[in-house]
Amino acid sequence: MTVIIGQRLILSVLRRVFAKQCLQTVPRSGREGEAIDCFKASSEKNGKPYLLLDSLDGDLIKCRRWDGNSYSIDMQERLSNLVDGELHVVHYYGLTRIDFTGPWDFLWHRYSRFIYIWINIRRAKEGAAQFLFNRRSLRSQQRLRILRILVSARLTGDLIENMFSPRGLTSFDVMTELYSNRWVNHPDHETRQTEVGLQLEALAASGDVVKSNITYTATPKSIATLEQAEEQDRRHREAFRLQLWIVILTFIIALSALVQAGLVSLPTLLDLRGK
Questions:
Q1: How many Cβ atoms sit within 10 Å of the Cβ of residue 154?
Q2: Strand 209-212 to strand 165-166: parallel, antiparallel, or no bridges (unpaired)?
């Protein structure tokens, strides 16, 4: 009886696997890799590679046996002979690789969807973080950081000669604020200072700072520029939180459906009947 159940489980798994069988080469990067959704099934023997399963023909499995270096020996194996072996299924789910050991492990995760929900939550989080990072170029991010330094200097009054004539910062001052005094001894200090100088010139051209000789002073417009950048970040963070809540709600609905279908049993947490 146990053997029959084992065979039926493996048969159920292989039907699903062979319906979305991977090609010989599976892309693992770029858009092609992100679009991948396929399976590979193999069987191990004594913890070592044994068979790569290719297709199903009744109770016969067309496969390739491991020759010590690759799966190169074409053969057929009866389904019943896989019961005592270790079935291993790999799901290439986009750029994520999911390994299942045994039919129970595969069927549980395929029906419960827990692992896929978790992967999509993680993808949503990473995607939102990457989107926020990519929304501005690295130079734009540095430009905003420089602008914050100039605004801070203007607001704190640390560098003010008198109430009506604030002294600006030089590119040297900004470099020191960005990288501390150690930047002077950095081997690329001249290149870095040139880059900061260009960023300061860009801020002057946009009207966010005023240049006077070699110094730069933040203007009132710089406050509006920073507020606008912060508002954009806030909106994107809110959009990300909304997407995350949608994923969590989908998980709860899926779990509820599994409980109602009797596929998952939850222990009674509270007994309100009293004694």
A1: 22
A2: unpaired
- Look up residue 169 and give its DSSP letter: B
Decide if 146 contacts 168 (C-beta within 8 A).
no
* Domain closes at, from 110, 137, 155: 110
Q: Give per-residue pLDDT as tens, 45-70.
A: 888 888 999 998 888 899 999 998 88
pTM listed for this prediction: 0.54
Which residues, at least 6 apart from 229, have a Cβ–Cβ distance to it below 8 Å? Answer: 144
pLDDT for 173 beyond 60: yes
Can you tell me the distance from the alpha carbon of 219 to that of 196, in angstroms, rounded to the nearest whole number? 18
- State the burial class of residue 169 (Cβ atoms within 10 Å of its Cβ: 0-12, 13-18, 19+): buried
Which residue among 110, 129, 152 closes a domain? 110
Q: What backbone phi and psi angles, to 5 degrees, belong to 166?
A: -70, 135
Residues in the chain: 275
Cα–Cα distance between 225 and 201 in angstroms, integer?
16
- Which range of residues forms the domain containing residue 242? 113-262
Alpha carbons 235 and 12: distance in angstroms, whole number: 46
Residue 170: partners with Cβ closer than 8 Å, 6 or more residues away = 214, 215, 216
Structure tokens at 141: 């991010």
